[in-house]
Specification:
Blueprint: E1 2-4, E2 11-14, H1 20-32, E3 36-40, H2 46-57, E4 61-65, E5 68-72, E6 85-86, H3 91-101, E7 107-111, H4 114-117, H5 122-131, E8 134-137, H6 138-141, E9 143-149, E10 153-154, E11 157-159, H7 165-175, E12 178-179, E13 181-186, H8 193-200, E14 205-210, E15 213-219, E16 228-230, H9 235-247, E17 252-259, H10 266-273, E18 277-286, E19 289-297, E20 306-307, H11 319-327, E21 332-335, H12 348-358, E22 362-366, E23 369-373, E24 382-383, H13 389-401, E25 406-408, H14 421-427
Parallel strand pairs: 2-17, 3-16, 6-7, 10-12, 11-13, 20-21, 24-25
Antiparallel strand pairs: 1-25, 3-5, 4-5, 7-9, 8-9, 13-15, 14-15, 17-19, 18-19, 21-23, 22-23
Bound molecules: shikimate-3-phosphate.
Length: 432
């Protein structure tokens, strides 16, 4: 357990850890490539370590020096693992790796921790079966543990209704070893790191705007060529400090090297819509991704805001911390069309609603979101994280703005994406 009390202000500079989505992909794609790749500023967290461990169990050699990795690519030719592959808490590891395993002519089983074993997998299993992979698991293949016997695949055209980047990525990775073309259609463009990074590895992709949304098409049997990938800071981790700065009087922060990809910057756009002072400095490109230093300062009382269904993919992981900012804004804020939050590392709609109520906020719960009546100040209380890193960090921010003491029940879960979170708060003068 950890105790938090109100912080005066946060000032200075911080480089939050590297992006989780990019770090997973960097090590995975390097191991799929031909030749030796280098990954710089790799995020070392519980989730990304699960990916690295699985790749090693499949025969990939990786040499690690600090936060930099040298990866000996296997060119899509792995060894049959002699044990069950454990994705731990990581949905990205399980789902993307299923796409890779579907291309391999051997037997493998993938599992995860209690939370991951309760999360839906049919969204990747069904299209991979259509491509020709033989996959089975609990509940007809919807729940881990899941076994895959891959092999000869054929390209498909798939409508990715939930705009899930994990599903899109799994299909593109399988599509790279399938006959013909694999095509993924999305109603709203989901995070596009796979497309950007595959092109950095020399893969040709076609992207078009179709009648039902965005289309990505890839031809099978292209090889990835080894390259260098630099990982920027994770906007989903930076979001906690942006929130803390806009909410605490006298704050002024420069967050360095932040990924500002338009499929990931929805939280910053919402903060601006609420009246927050946030700006980009030194905008540049790093390994085909837009990166900037993000300047933020205390912004007085913010205005309530609405998140519409089509805006959800660009801020999906930031919704818990956005809810905290909404709870201190003037007026009624709404989030709708976010039912995906119910099947993340925890049921994030339930966790947000319960914890905000504990802190004295009036909240209405919907199947696909919530409505929050802003208040002038939060009251400290006992926060239940449900073992979910983003709930722990969002409500730590809430606790640092609240009157009285806040207790976080399982702060260790931050290790999933941001092991140094509480240390970084202390560096900025917070009493944690
Ligand atoms: C991720 C995609 C998103 C996101 C998750 C990471 C990725 O999930 O919530 O934290 O790296 O592709 P969905 O693809 O399920 O929307």
């Amino acid at each position: 357990m950890i105790k938090l009390t109100k912080v005066g202000s946060v000032r200075g500079e911080l480089r939050t850890p590297s992006d989780k989505s990019i770090s997973h992909r960097a090590v995975m794609f390097s191991s799929l490539a031909e030749g030796v790749s280098y990954v710089y500023n790799w995020l070392e967290s519980a989730d990304t370590k699960a990916t690295l461990h699985i790749l090693k169990s499949l025969g990939t050699k990786v040499v690690k020096k600090g936060n930099h990795l040298k990866v000996y690519g296997r060119g899509y030719s792995f060894l049959e693992p002699s044990t069950v592959l454990d994705a731990k808490n990581s949905g990205t590891t399980a789902r993307l790796m299923m796409g890779v395993l579907a291309t391999q002519p051997f037997f493998s089983t993938i599992t995860g921790d209690k939370s991951l074993r309760s999360r839906p997998m049919l969204r990747v299993v069904e299209p991979l079966r259509l491509m020709g992979a033989s996959i089975d698991g609990r509940e007809g293949g919807n729940k881990l543990p899941i076994s895959v016997r891959g092999g000869k695949l054929k390209g498909v055209s798939f409508f990715n209704k939930k705009a899930s980047a994990q599903v899109k990525s799994a299909l593109l990775l399988a599509g790279l070893r399938a006959d013909g073309y694999t095509e993924v259609l999305e109603p709203v463009l989901s995070r596009d790191h796979t497309e950007r990074m595959l092109s950095a590895f020399g893969v040709r992709l076609y992207q078009m705007e179709g009648e039902s949304g965005h289309v990505i098409k890839i031809e099978g049997f292209q090889n990835l060529k080894a390259t260098e990938i630099f990982c920027p800071a994770d906007p989903s981790s930076t979001a906690f400090f942006l929130a803390l700065a806009v909410l605490t009087s006298g704050s002024d922060l420069l967050l360095k090297d932040v990924l500002v990809n338009p499929t990931r910057d929805g939280f910053i756009r919402k903060l601006k819509e609420m009246g927050a002072h946030v700006s980009y400095e030194n905008l540049r490109e790093l390994s085909r991704e837009p990166v900037a230093d993000v300047y933020v300062r205390y912004s007085g009382r913010l205005r309530a805001v609405e998140v519409k269904p089509e805006e959800v993919p660009s801020l999906i992981d930031e919704i818990p911390v956005l809810a905290v900012v909404m709870s201190l804004a003037e007026g009624v804020s709404k989030v709708r069309g976010a039912e995906e939050l119910r099947v993340k590392e925890s049921d994030r709609i339930k966790a947000v609603v319960e914890n905000l109520r504990v802190m004295g906020v009036k909240v209405e719960e919907y199947k696909d979101g919530f409505e929050i009546e802003g208040t002038e100040s939060l009251k400290g209380g006992f926060v239940k994280t449900y073992g979910d890193h983003r709930i722990a960090m969002a409500f730590s921010v809430a606790g640092l703005t609240a009157q009285g003491e806040t207790i976080i029940d399982n702060p260790q879960c931050v290790a999933v994406s941001y092991p140094e979170f509480y240390e970084d708060l202390r560096k900025l003068g917070c009493s944690v």
